[in-house]
Structure formats: structure tokens, C-alpha cells
Amino acid sequence: MLKITPFQMAVFEQDQEQRFRKQVREEIQQSYAEYAGISSIILDHLLDLALQRARSYGFTWQSTMGQFVYLMAAIAPNFDLHPAIHAGLVNPGVPVEERIHELVKNLPDGVWTEATSHASTLGWFLTEDAFKVKPATRIAMALSNALPQDLAATLSDLEGKVLPAMERAKTMGFDTEDGQFVFAACEVIYGVGFDTRYDWTKDALDPELTPDLQAALLRARIAIDTAAWL
Q1: Could you say which DSSP state residue 147 is in?
Q2: Which residue in 61, 74, 99, 193 is a FRET match for 25, CA 20 to 30 A apart?
Q3: Kindly report the CA angle at 166 between 155 and 152, in degrees rounded to 5?
Q4: What are phi and psi of 209, to 5 degrees?
Q5: Which of 97, 119, 141 is the last residue of a domain?
Q6: For the chain, how many structural domains are there in total?
Q7: Range of the domain at 209
Q8: 185-221: burial string, b at 16+ Cβ within 10 Å, e else
């Protein structure tokens, strides 16, 4: 009689997990142009965080967790923060592993369009359901995973730094959570007042540019200086 030891089973499960992650990563890179140029190392890190968030909703099947991550790439990294979508993800009247299927099947196109219009890369850096937390808390939660770890490890009271950064971001036209997330990251990395301290901010924060383009330029600067992908 064939006998499989606990060690053999653990190796088998680890191999299955690695195959699953590789499949999801390659599918995202091949299907969504904005992720094609991201290094496998960075994308593997994002997938690790995303799968943690999927599990926080109770998903255990690889197929369901894969669907969750695909929706992050196809709709928005923070798609689960849309009220109608979140309600479906936590709906006690539907078995956990069937909830995403029911959402895709039943929600009108307008809901998915709304979720897309509020897309934020912040969603890649959340490891749990953050629907009910305050925006400042949510941004702080994301920054703790998005910032270079040697920097994040030295920070205390990150939420206390985020709240005033959000207010300053709003005065500069960053009305979305995504823009405030990026601006707060800059304040943590470069210091409060970075927007007037460095010459490169004159181009990145040119008032002739839209807030979305300004945020993209700030992201690019962070990537150049720290190798962090936001």
C-alpha cells in the first residue's frame, strides 16, 4: 500500500502553490499591458499580498483566489472597496467560494465601471478586508507594505503621518485616495514639504498637469530613488 509521508505531502502542496502563483502571474502579465513590464520579483510580492487579502474574505480554493486577483488586475486593485462589490464578497447568504461567481454574474456593468473609475494601486498593498476602516488607516496599512521595508521598519505612528499628508494632498488637488496614497508616500520618503524642497517637483507637480499625471510622475520618482513600485 502506497504511503505518503507528511513531508512528501508538504512538498507536494508547496509545488502546487508555486505552480498556481506562476500561472496567475503569467496570466496577468500576458492579459494586462500595465503589468507586462513589472518584474517577476515585484509582481510575486504583489501576488503574495493580494492572496492574503483574498484569504481574509474566507476564500480557500485556488480557483476562487485566482478570480479575486484577476479582478484586481482587470477592474481595479481596490475593486473590493466598492460598496456593492464588498456586500457580495461578505454576503452570508451565499457560500464563500461561490460569492465571486455570483458577483460577476449578477452585478450590472455600471458597478464594475464605478469600481474602475476609483482604481488605486493602494489595493495591491492591503492584506485584509479594509472596507470599514478610515481612509487614513487604510493608506497607512498599504504604505506599511508598499514602502521599502528598511524604511517602513523605522517608522512609528504611520497613520499619524498620513492624516496631515492627506490634508496637504487635498489642497494640491489630489482628491482621490490613490493620489493621497502616493503623496503620503512621498512625504514619508522625502519628508514633509518635499514639494518645495526638490527641483524635480517643479515638473512632477506642474499645475498644468492633471492630478493623475502628477501622481504617475511621483510614482516614477519613487521607483527611481527607492526601486519601490507604487
Answers
A1: S
A2: 99
A3: 15
A4: -90, 155
A5: 119
A6: 2
A7: 133-230
A8: bbbbbbeeebbeeeeebeebbeeeeebeebbebbbeb
